[in-house]
Amino acid sequence: MRAIERINIRVGKEMQMSDSELARGDLSDCRVLVIEDESLVAMLIQDTLADIGCEVVGVASRFDDAFAKAESLSFDVAILDVNLNGRQTFPIAEALAERRRAFVFSTGYGAASVPASFQNMPILQKPFQQRDLEQALRAALIQVL
Which residues have C-beta within 8 Å of that of residue 12, sequence separation ≥ 6? Predict the structure, then answer.
């Protein structure tokens, strides 16, 4: 039985969670804001979230809409595409961090696309699997506790 699971979706320092922490992190009924500009990717994320029992409370594909939803909607965690139609979402991440809201970065550009100030946040490298998404969501939720 393994005692520690490494989450390789992390950038910078790897986060380690015990099996009990991973198991305890039930994601059913977790409310998620999805910020993604590619409609097919957004639909896949929504389907995956539904499969693990999460509720998608909002989806945004444009920066202004994403920022407004991040400020106004009630959610447990947000998934932020790093590059939203050519515009970086780091101002949204900063606003979420100030409000102590959990979030996960999602990127197809690699970990180097995330500034040093966010190197400790969970980062999903596209394409990712359901298990990767689950681990990233749990890691983000644990960080804001």
Answer: 119, 120
Residues whose CB falls within 8 Å of the CB of residue 104, separated by 6 or more in sequence, listed in order:
77, 78, 79, 80, 121, 122, 123, 124, 136, 137, 139, 140
* CA-based nearest residue to 122, from 131, 111, 112: 111
Q: What is the CATH number of domain 31-143?
A: 3.40.50.2300
CA distance 24 to 18: 10
Q: What three-state secondary structure class fits 68?
A: helix
Stretch (H or E) spanning 26: none
| pLDDT digit string, tens, across residues 51-93 | 999 999 999 999 999 999 999 999 999 999 999 999 999 999 9
Helix (H, G, I), strand (E, B) or coil at 101: coil
Query: What pTM was computed for the model?
Result: 0.83
Domain spans of the chain?
Answer: 31-143
